[in-house]
Design goal:
By secondary structure, the protein is of the alpha/beta class. It contains 15 helices and twelve strands. Helix 5 links the parallel strand 5 and strand 6. The chain is globular and about 65 Å long.
């Protein structure tokens, strides 16, 4: 009850701010509401090269440093405690022609965009294993008003960017949208996998920062988050056993989900074998130096499959997670790698190197069919047309009123 009261009060305040800013004219500008960096950064680079418009990044505290460095854009903290920046954020949202969002944002339930404004969902992953949106099984426990609010948010997505028809079908179910809203441009963050120069520079940069990585093979453990572990994370790996069995040949990188708030405390005995890269800014760059990925229900395999490198799936709580969240497809049939349930099985799989590379390639074809290295250009061309249409409409309005 208290939670719903707070949400309703917050949304009422948002609604009042949109009403206050309504008389202000829409301008030729693009607003990006950011929870995850890479899609937004890659798209911004392309916009900067080929599109004339004002750009505003509206971010949380965790992402702020990734965007404030762009001197020719405005970066604002979208948090009520930073009240002036919060008000400026709503102003820009009220007066932008193009708005990109990359996550579920509750404020959209109360946003009142003007006619002709496009809100485009630039989702932070280009594939999905676990269910989300209207299909997330956890919303069964939410009230009718909350479920209506979810749909009000999803209805704001005039278009949703996808990298495949498979993901398009998922978005239609997750957001309750029809096929006409699916924008088949490819996913911006995947363009770098087609850029050999970028890949070589990324590898050079990481090896320069962590020179010990180049002498051994790299294992990356990147699990998804569990709701009950966001504030107190429990690592499911026996790190001492991993070092004992694999330490001569491998380095282990740990990449916790961005939603996890706690930090790992590694003993000194493990620091020559394990590196916590949870705060490293670019996940894709880490993938370039990774030899084997270990994950569970994360979306990282959809990007990693570009590289045709082996993956191990460690869903140690499979039945529990399936019950609480649900999967879009049968887990065993979907994932392109061995499924294991213990530390010993992980180690044995790494030592035996028993991987099916054909299955990885097929997985990549299915989920990345539209992501062919031109995703950013495709999206920029799409919004160019929209910006031009709006400008022509404004000129017609102006001439008819004279």
């Amino acid at each position: 009850m208290a939670r719903e009261l707070w949400i309703n009060t917050y949304l009422r305040f948002i609604s009042l701010l949109f009403a206050f800013y309504r008389p202000f004219p829409v301008k030729r500008k693009v607003v990006m509401v950011v929870s995850f960096a890479e899609n937004n950064i890659e798209l911004y680079k392309e916009m900067k090269n080929s599109l004339s418009c004002e750009t505003i990044f509206i971010t949380n505290k965790k992402q702020h440093s990734n965007f404030v460095k762009f001197n020719d854009a405005i970066t604002l903290l979208f948090q009520v405690q930073h009240f002036v920046q919060f008000l400026r954020s709503i102003y820009h949202l009220s007066t932008a022609k193009i708005i990109f969002v990359d996550n579920y944002y509750g404020f959209l339930a109360a946003a009142r965009f003007k006619k002709g404004v496009k809100c485009i969902q630039l989702w932070h992953a280009n594939g999905a294993i676990k269910k989300f949106g209207l299909e997330d099984q956890s919303i069964r426990h939410r009230g009718k008003r909350a479920r209506e609010r979810f749909q009000q948010v999803y209805d704001k997505f005039e278009h949703v960017v996808v990298g495949s028809d498979a993901m398009g079908e998922i978005f239609q179910q997750a957001f309750g949208l029809d096929e006409s809203r699916i924008l088949k441009t490819g996913v911006p963050r995947t363009d770098v996998f087609w850029n050999k120069d970028y890949k070589q520079e990324a590898i050079r940069k990481i090896n320069s920062r962590y020179p010990f990585l180049s002498s051994k093979k790299v294992i990356l453990y990147a699990p998804t988050y569990r709701d009950e572990q966001i504030n107190q994370y429990k690592l499911s790996l026996d790190l001492d056993l991993f070092k004992k069995e694999l330490g001569n040949d491998y380095i282990l990188l740990l990449r916790l989900h961005p939603a996890v708030k706690s930090e790992l405390n590694l003993s000194k005995d493990l620091q020559d074998f394990i590196l916590d890269v949870s705060n490293y800014s670019s996940l894709n760059e880490l993938l370039f130096i990774t030899d084997i990925l270990i994950t569970d229900y994360s979306s990282i395999p959809f990007e990693f499959s570009f590289l045709n490198k082996p993956m191990i799936f460690y869903p140690y709580d499979l039945n529990q997670y399936k019950e609480s969240r649900g999967f879009w497809e049968d887990y065993q049939n979907l994932v392109p790698g061995p499924i294991v349930f213990s530390n010993e099985e992980i180690i044995s799989t790494i030592k035996s190197q028993d991987f099916d590379y054909t299955r990885i390639a097929d997985f990549n074809i299915k989920w990345n069919e539209f992501s062919q290295g031109y995703s950013c250009k495709n999206i920029v061309e799409f919004i160019k047309v929209h910006l031009s249409e709006n400008m022509q409409s404004e000129l017609i309005k102006s001439s008819s009123s004279q």
